[in-house]
Write a structure and sequence with these properties.
Largest sheet of chain A: 4 strands, antiparallel
Strand content of chain A: 15-25%
Number of domains of chain A: 2
Number of helices of chain A: 14
Shape of chain B: globular
Largest sheet of chain B: none
Number of strands of chain A: 23
Number of strands of chain B: 0
Helix content of chain B: over 70%
Distance between the termini of chain A: 35 Å
Oligomer: heterodimer
Number of domains of chain B: 2
Number of helices of chain B: 15
Strand content of chain B: under 5%
Shape of chain A: globular
Amino acid sequence: MKWVAPRSGFDEVFDARGQARAHYAPLISILESFTKEDVERRERLQQLTLRSQGITFTVYGEKDGLERIFPFDFVPRIIPAPEWKSLQDGLVQRITTLNLFLADIYQEQKCIKDGIVPAALILSRKEYKRELLGLMPARKIFTHVVGTDIIRNDRGEYLVLEDNCRVPSGVSYVLENRNLLSRVFPEFFGSYPVRPIKDYPTLLLETLRFVAPRRGQNPVVVVLSPGIHNSAYFEHSFLAREMGVPLVEGRDLLVEGNHLFMRRTHGKRQVDVIYRRIDDDFLDPLAFRRDSMLGVPGLLNVYREGNVALANAPGAGVADDKSVYAFMPSLIKYYLGEDPLLPQVPTYLGFRKDDFRYISEHLDQLVVKTTGDAGGYGMLMGPFAAAKDRESYLAAMKKNPGNYVAQPLVELSTHPTHIRGKFEPRRVDLRPFILYGDRIRVLPGGLTRVALRAGSYVVNSSQGGGSKDTWVLAPRDA
Amino acid sequence: MILSRVADGLYWMGRYLERAENTTRLLLVTEELSTEVLGLDENLARGEWDDLRAIFPGFPGREPAARHLAGLAAATLLGLSIDPDNRYSVFHSLKKARDDARSVREALTLEVFINLNETYRELEGYTRRRLADPATFRGAMQSTHRGILSTVGAIEHTLTRDAGWLFLKLGESLERVFRTAVILRTKLPALVAAEPKIDLPLFYSQWRSLLRGLSSLENYRKAFGARLEPIDVLQFLLFDPQTPRSVRYGVTAVKEHLDRISSASELSPSVRIVGKLAAELSYQGHDLIREGQSLSFLDHVLGELGRAHDALSAEYFGT
């Protein structure tokens, strides 16, 4: 088997001298013991399994919404226990802060009064829901589930790239990748103390039940999905199945007497907690977007009355806004009196005049993003864009500077990935999942997304990305 | 008790799976009979294809009738097997069943989904060009048929017998008896009009193919022996209490599922309609056939089944 040497950035497996890092050495020797034919046969089995089980996502914009298999690379990413420990501590600190911040901006707004964040920055965002001012969700938890995107710079330092506080997806692939790899390459697991992740659905259900309004009784939890045509539908259905709770669509729910019910064949049943996988704007046509066919009329009133819990809480999206991100280090300091444990990427804010001038003068060195979008949409990769694309992007930016942020291009770390018979370096990121229930728990694993195209920085599934199984190793003496 | 939408999805999944099975089987049987009689009686062969188009009315109305039999046969075979736009094609039914399965996946087991998904994917892989070869066509349909039966087996062996299962089986049984009645209603006029004239073997092949088209030839032989008497065949397909594709058996199955689903002490409209129909079928018999009432009776059965579908949709699915 041929290994292609990394050319730039930090490689997860090989050090600068081309030697395998200690925690990868056993894996490499196992991989070396396979012939090319063995590997190809296993890869075919892997494809068949993904296809026959219907483990897919939907690509928008094609006829009928095409179902695609999320490409899976069988070379696992391995994270040693001490590295994970510091990641985990940093994430707990961050999620704690995000929730304190959300509670603050929907109540007293002290961080604005104390000049930590500019009022305009928060109040102007469409993700900030004025309708919810003064409303505290059950147990003061706004973000029951967060997926934080993490990258490594060319020194191998872990940096937070963004927090996803709305409806982060990908956890079903984390679990399915592990199932798949243990079936297709069981040999890998013998030499490593890989921490299990199978109990995620149980923990998710506990997290959701923790905020149920009718305590003491057996609360009814449901997963709310936009339906079969949504790109993450597989995951919605997967999580409902794994938790053993109903998967519902908006049309299955109705509001009566300020309580929420689901329509069943023989009468209705009250619902206590919704793990909603639809955006705020579509939740309730009476409160937000009137044209929403996905939501439930009157849902927000039921929520306001405290008769149903929503996870994540409506309005939480403002916390993962790309310009709020720039203030996270100061917010951590402000609420916790601590220094941030995890560094993040320097960010220039379009709404600041000086920053905007800097962005427009250095467009060829920066990655520019719109504040509201996710999934790699609406992004300009300055260093790779054609001059005329940069110009037209700049023209659009000038119309609404506050809508943009820019960051220097971070050289993502690379990881050997099996590409047509060879192991080639490809750029990766990492999305750990964090649950906030009776306490904050970080799933020991995560979604490692990989940019399968040579040279590409874009890991999103909608744009040619794949994924890897991610192993967090147990501490040696645990 | 389950969500109305999930009950609806499972009911239709049951219907589409059953429909796909019926279409596959009839395609195979018709292709075989048509090949057998082609040299003997071209009109008879043409009639078989026309019947098939009447049983599965998914072809556009204004499509010019093929002048050559070969063209008619090929268009019908391809149209009802893989044409995604023909709403009675096997492909269309499997796609619908799979869409329903995806939308109610939490009510199914992995085994059910995998069998259905693989059957669908395999058929999706065929092109019109490949299926133009008769041997490939037969192979593809036989394999699809096996796939559907193994999906049904997975349903039988892995699903919990809860309300969801009942709705799935309700859809399956209603589709089955409805299609049996449609097949009989389509084929009977020509069959009873054609007295055994000159060609006795040909006459009997048609009755045999009717039984095969309803998966009932072996079962008929067990009840009546190898001798095919039209009145016995009709008696068997309409009123036999044991063979799973007779009208009587089918309506009884629908009734049993509906009885178990409905919990109310008062009879619901759908239970009333199906209950009456099941009673009629239990007490009808030879006389009706002798008096030449079969066709009007079948019309009555079809009408009542349609009403039962409307009533149960309103009762349980809110549609």
